[in-house]
Design brief:
By secondary structure, the chain is mainly alpha-helical. The chain is built from 10 helices and no strands. Helix content is 64%, strand content 0%.
Length: 257
Amino acid sequence: MTVKTLIPFFLLSFALTWGLAAVLVFVSFSTPVFLLAVYSPGIVGIFLVWRYYGTQGLRSFFRRLTLWRMPGVWWLFLIVGFPAIIYLGAAINGTISDPFPFSPWYQVLPAIAFSLFLLGTNEEFGWRGVALPLLQRKYSPFWAGLILGVVWAAWHIPAFFISGLQFESWSVLPYFGGVIVLSIILTPIFNSAKGSLLIAYLFHFQVMNPIFPDAQPWDSLLLALAAVVIVVLNRRTMFKKGTGVTDVLMPEQESGA
């Protein structure tokens, strides 16, 4: 798998998602079609891994879900720091005291399970599973994260035209900026975890954690400030080509095909 693989990855991901989104915009909303549109980057990423490396390669690719070790400061940011930013944004936004969205309380666990396993978390098999390692073969982590962030943000455009989604209440530019910032923040975390799909998966879950209050657009602005601090503190690796993870498979099994 080479950098050129990014071309079919991006083209197929956008074609599937935007094509299916058009069905939802112009025909009618369908949960299976919506989920398939959301899964498209992950589906394309998994397909390309199989195409280049076969079933043995897929096993190696999914083993990246077992990578969990990373510096404690990143775990602290993921578990404590990120939610703190969201709640601070909600406090500024005036939505921190909004009624808890789940009533009765026993709906919380099903909602968390749905977000964890059936929504956007599955995108990471494509974005950080395939695209980011390939981009880091050509660019430094900062530029790879920025480029992927722009693509990731643009990929979400159809969501603003599908009725019934939360995107209807959000401003486009702050949301797009927030997605780009998230990509930059996740890049050093991902690299510190040796290309862990698990960490990328959990980070994406935190981004869309259903129990967090709506903090748009302030969470995007606060995350941008956090990104500046993270980039400055990690500038030695963020701007140096060759310091990011470039393996699509588990590192010892990447053949460079």
